[in-house]
Automatic annotation (TrEMBL), chain A:
Residues 1-124 form the Solute-binding protein family domain. SUPFAM superfamilies: Periplasmic binding protein-like II (SSF53850). This is ABC-type transport system substrate-binding protein. It comes from Roseococcus suduntuyensis. GO terms for biological process: peptide transport.
UniProtKB/TrEMBL annotation, chain B:
The keyword Cell membrane applies. Gene3D superfamilies: MetI-like. InterPro entries: BPD_transp_1_N, MetI-like, MetI-like_sf. It is found in: Cell membrane. The keyword Cytoplasm does not apply. The chain crosses the membrane at residues 101-123, 135-156, 202-221, 256-277, 298-321. Coiled coil: none annotated. Belongs to the binding-protein-dependent transport system permease family. This is Peptide/nickel transport system permease protein. GO terms for cellular component: plasma membrane. Keywords: Cell membrane, Membrane, Transmembrane, Transmembrane helix, Transport. One of its GO terms (molecular function) is dipeptide transmembrane transporter activity. Residues 95-321 form the ABC transmembrane type-1 domain.
Length: 216, 335
């Protein structure tokens, strides 16, 4: 996926909490096991696979072309019999359908507002009151809610400095266990500048703080 | 009189265009607030309500339309949802780039098309005529984006004769803006490095766009020239010893150009708001690219302004075509 979409300029990500953020260290990225996937599908009564409408925004986000991601997903899932019917949509149409929980499957992106993991939990966590709980159909099927997630988040936010990493790791593992939000890739950011400039740096919230850039 | 009538009808035409584009935009059923506040902020009802109030989207649709028309009549096309700037400012920046491209394409297409038509009509049914007709067929058949990509591949990549996409080399400083037309502004500032670069970068997109115009002009003009050359006054002039060149240029061409003028004017007007594909292939920062960026985000003010710009261009092209025809054909001046 990373080679196909980003030309290799990216990294896999294990949980909805991105690489480098509190709680992301040491998490295992799921491997590929086509045979086991087929077995699991057969055991669930889908031995011949099934079809899924896959609506996605036809945009390029941080270098990741969603059309390419969708095509790669179609190829990968096709190997186990899951047939995606790709339906590109403009961004506003996609958002409207997604917020109305009309999409059985989709892809999206997220860029942080600050350096902190709680924003990812409050957005992607499958618990009452979060956007993705509603978008995943939680309004009609409240049983998908992750009962322990809110408690884990509260403990992580209250944890002292030395324990915060472990606390957020527990949050991340809990989110991974939901198997509803599946991280695909984390694009590398490449910033090039002339030697005569200083102050060029990446910022998690601003990408590139222009006000700090000046000639040497 | 006809010209005056056309100009008086222009506001009615624009009102119709505004109504249709407004209606079609709203008919998508997608909430335009999404484009304004973004995906995450849509989860906050207070933000959504504030955005609707600020952008007038909380008013009834009919009121929104009437406000838009009233503002547009005063030259205010609203603020772009996407750029957050007045649409008029966006268009003022973009329009010169498109005008420069379309003017160059129209001029190139007209000159090449007329030259080919003259050669073709001079020696009809010969090898040259066949070649011209083949060129014309290719020009109307090959999509403009494919022509653009082919030209880029051949002349910019393979032969390296001309630069690639973009209006100006990023390492050059643009000249002060007087007209917005890079060639004119660079000449006024006597910045010949910029002028040369801008001129070289204009060749390929103008050729891609102009090929279609040249094809249409060549086809039409060839047919009308052959008709003209068979008329009695040409036969009479030929019998008095006029050269074929003078017959073609002085006697046949002015009459044959009358229908071609309408074609050229319409082509120009259509391209003002419609050179989307060429501007995309060549990364040309014009109105077409602006429309392409605005449409997927449902940027209503921008979409409507570009549509109305296209309408104005088409209406004015009719006026220009009529004036040109009256100049060429004195019989039309009495109208």
């Amino acid at each position: 996926m990373i080679e196909f979409v980003l030309g290799g300029a990216g990294k896999p990500q294990a949980s909805p909490i991105p690489n480098g953020f509190p709680g992301s260290a040491g998490l295992e990225v799921p491997g590929t096991d086509v045979a086991r996937a087929r077995q699991m599908l057969a055991a669930a009564g889908h031995g011949r696979g099934f079809d899924v409408d896959f609506t996605f925004p036809a945009i390029n986000s941080y270098g990741a072309d969603m059309s390419l991601v969708a095509q790669r997903l179609q190829q990968d899932l096709g190997r186990v019999g899951i047939r995606l019917r790709l339906q590109p949509a403009t961004f506003p149409v996609w958002v409207q359908q997604m917020r109305a929980a009309q999409l059985p499957m989709t892809i999206g992106y997220y860029a942080p507002d600050y350096f902190g993991s709680a924003q990812y939990v409050n957005f992607f966590g499958i618990m009452e009151g979060t956007p993705w709980f509603t978008r995943a159909g939680g309004g009609n099927l409240s049983s998908i809610a992750n009962a322990e997630l809110r408690g884990l988040l509260t403990r992580a936010l209250a944890a002292p400095e030395g324990e915060r990493e472990a606390a957020f790791q527990a949050v991340a593992r809990s989110m991974m266990g939901d198997r509803i939000i599946l991280p695909l890739l984390s694009p590398d950011l490449v910033i090039a500048h002339r030697p005569g400039l200083q102050g060029v740096r990446y910022s998690t919230c601003c990408n590139l703080p222009l006000a700090e850039i000046r000639p040497r | 009189m006809v010209l005056i009538q056309r100009l008086l009808l222009l506001p009615v035409l624009l009102l119709g265009i505004a109504a249709v584009s407004f209606g079609l935009s709203r008919a998508t059923g997608v909430d335009p607030v999404i484009a304004i506040v973004g995906e995450r902020a849509m989860e906050d009802p207070a933000v959504v309500a504030a955005a609707r109030a600020q952008w007038g989207l909380d008013r009834p649709v009919a009121v929104q339309f009437l406000r838009h028309v009233a503002n547009a009549a005063q030259g205010d096309f609203g603020t772009s949802f996407r750029t957050r700037r007045p649409v008029g400012t966006d268009l003022a920046e973009r329009l010169p780039a498109t005008l420069e491209l379309v003017l160059a394409a129209t001029l190139l297409g007209t000159l090449v098309g007329a030259a080919l038509a003259l050669l073709s009509a001079r020696w009809p049914h010969g090898l040259l005529d066949q070649a011209v007709r083949g060129f014309a067929s290719a020009g109307v058949s090959i999509p403009v984006f494919l022509a653009g990509l082919l030209f880029l591949w051949v002349f910019a990549s393979w032969l390296d004769w001309l630069p690639g996409p973009g209006r100006l080399d990023a390492r050059l400083t643009p000249p002060p803006v007087w007209t917005g037309l890079l060639l004119v502004d660079a000449a006024l500032a006597m910045d010949w490095a910029v002028w040369r670069d801008a001129a070289r970068r204009l060749v390929l997109p103008a050729a891609a766009l102009g090929w279609g115009i040249a094809a249409l002009v060549a086809r039409l003009l060839r047919a009308t020239l052959i008709e003209e050359l068979a008329r009695f006054h040409i036969v009479a002039a030929r019998s008095r010893g006029l050269s074929e060149g003078r017959l073609l240029l002085d006697h046949a061409l002015p009459n044959a150009m009358v229908p071609a003028l309408t074609l050229i004017s319409l082509s120009f007007a259509t391209l003002v708001a419609g050179a989307v594909l060429t501007e995309t292939v060549f990364a040309w920062p014009g109105v077409g690219a602006y429309a392409l960026e605005s449409a997927p985000t449902l940027d209503y003010p921008a979409i409507m302004a570009v549509t109305m710009l296209g309408g104005v261009a088409l209406a004015l092209s009719g006026v220009v075509a009529d004036a040109g025809q009256a100049w060429l054909d004195p019989r039309l001046r009495d109208r």
